[in-house]
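Q: I have two molecules that I believe assemble together. Could you output structure tokens for the complex as a whole instead of separate predictions?
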Amino acid sequence: MEKNLKFYWTLFISTFSLSAFTIGGGYVIVPLMRKKFVEELKWIDEEEMLNLVAICQSAPGPIAVNTSIMVGYRLAGLFGALLTTIGTVLPPLIIITIIAKFYTAFKENTIVNALLLGMRAGVAAVILDVIIKMTDNIIKSKNLISLAIMIVAFIAAVIIDVNAALIIVLSGAFGGFYYNYFKKAGGAE
Amino acid sequence: MIYLEIFWSFFQIGLFSIGGGYAALPLIENQVTKVHDWLTMAEFADLLTISQMTPGPIALNASTFVGTKVAGLPGAIIATVGCITPSCIIVLTLAYFYFKYKNLSSIQGILKGLRPAVVSLIASAGLSILLLAIFNEETTLNNIQLLDINIPSIIMVALGLFILRKYKTDPILVMIGTGLVGIIIYGIF
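A: Yes, here they are, computed for all two components at once.
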């Protein structure tokens, strides 16, 4: 892709608008970024996006910030990372600065509450859409090991409540071991 | 000097919040209500309410909220920068090594193991968002009360998902759409 002014503007405004509409904690932004950069803009492919998210997961700090830095760096180096970071940080900075000034009125406003309640449903729909596509890709790959990792990781995260960083480390260690030693030694897929 | 104190506090919050989501919460509470007397507990509770209602990672919301209160807009900016500095350093270092060594077969094996786990982590975060959207604030998998179910919200999630999959609509439009419907349903009736 050509790195002209339009490219940098799209990079900035994409992270800015994602950050501005991501209610409900940083994790929500990950599927939204995937939708934007993988599906819509096609700047990053699905596999690479998952690699990047995995790396961001294992680093400390807000996941939304980490993923922005990573995506920016991948697409346009340090300058790209700077742009996407500013894009992600600006919306909360602006919104909270305004709200901090009159937050009691904001907290009790029926219309604001109704809007936010409605938006939650929209956010849930978008995330479901992304999850369906990602799960479908894993199933279509017909790789039983991937499928098994996915199911075990899901149970660990949802039912046993294992820390996300630990899940990342363990599945990476398993993949490294399985694909490099076991399979090379002649094990079946 | 107050700016340095703010920077250092939020630097620590950014550095030690591992795992995303609300992992940063106890750290923020400790730094802003115990180590420093920047917020009372009541103000801290307000901060949580605002964070749940507004976009952006909670650590960034807290940065702006506390920074503004202690030292105005410069305080907000310094707290935000402090909060993301550890991310920038660590993620960029990881990114550098990833792009340098990603083609090594041993790294490929690790990444192949990681990707399905990341899909599951996203799915598990998505599940909490979905529960929040169709039940209420305190719902987790363990305490679902079918009577709490929010019918308009389920319809909006389903409709949103349908529109996204059928027409490939921009997700932000779907979120704004459900937000507006929310105003009509919850705000006016």
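A: One point stands out. The mean pLDDT of chain A is 85.
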